[in-house]
Design a protein that fits this description.
Blueprint (H helix, E strand, L loop, with lengths): L1 H38 L7 H23 L6 H6 L2 H33 L13 H4 L1 H20 L6 H4 L4
Length: 168
C-alpha cells in the first residue's frame, strides 16, 4: 500500500511538472512568433506548429489533472440524494465506464501513433506526427491509473487521497 501511495504522489508530481514545462513551451513559442513577426518583421515558420503541438499536449495533460481532482463532468444532484451504498455503486459504475472509455482511447491512440510514425510534421520535418498523436494514449493511460487508484479508494482498499494529504 505504501508503494501505491508513493506511486500516486510521484505521478501527480510528474504530471504537474510536465504541465508546467509544456505550458511554458507554448508560451515561449507564441512569444517568439510575436517577437519575430512584429519586431524583426520575419516570422518563424515552425513556431506556430510547435505551439499547436504543445497546446494539444497541454490540453490532454489538463484532462488528466481534471481526472485526478475528480472535476470531470458529473451531475451531483441525484448522487447526493442517494444512500451511501447506492452512491458507492454508482461511483464504481462511472469508474468502470471511464475505464472502458480510456482503454478505447488508448487503443485508438496507439493505432494512430503507429500509423503516423514516419510522417513528418509540415514545418519541422525532424519531428514525426506521431509525437502529436502520442498525447492521446499517454494521457489515457495516466487517466486509467487514476481511475484504478480512485476505485481502490472507493472500495476501501486504499485510504482516500485527500485524507492522506490533509485535504485538497
Amino acid at each position: 500500500m505504501r508503494f501505491v501511495l508513493w506511486l500516486r504522489k510521484a505521478l501527480e508530481k510528474a504530471m504537474d511538472i510536465l504541465s508546467i514545462i509544456l505550458f511554458s513551451g507554448v508560451f515561449v513559442a507564441v512569444l517568439l512568433q510575436i517577437f519575430c513577426r512584429y519586431v524583426l518583421g520575419s516570422p518563424l515558420v515552425w513556431s506556430e506548429e510547435l505551439s499547436r503541438i504543445l497546446f494539444i499536449w497541454v490540453a490532454l495533460i489538463g484532462w488528466t489533472l481534471a481526472m485526478r481532482h475528480g472535476s470531470h463532468l458529473r451531475i451531483e444532484f441525484l448522487m447526493d440524494k442517494m444512500p451511501a451504498g447506492m452512491r458507492r455503486g454508482m461511483d464504481l459504475t462511472f469508474m468502470a465506464c471511464n475505464l472502458f472509455f480510456m482503454g478505447f482511447l488508448t487503443w485508438i491512440g496507439v493505432r494512430m501513433v503507429g500509423r503516423s510514425t514516419y510522417i513528418p510534421t509540415t514545418t519541422m520535418p525532424f519531428i514525426s506526427t506521431a509525437c502529436i498523436y502520442a498525447a492521446l494514449p499517454f494521457s489515457s493511460l495516466v487517466c486509467i491509473i487514476y481511475i484504478i487508484l480512485d476505485s481502490l479508494e472507493i472500495l476501501g482498499v486504499l485510504p482516500r487521497a485527500n485524507a492522506t494529504e490533509g485535504g485538497k
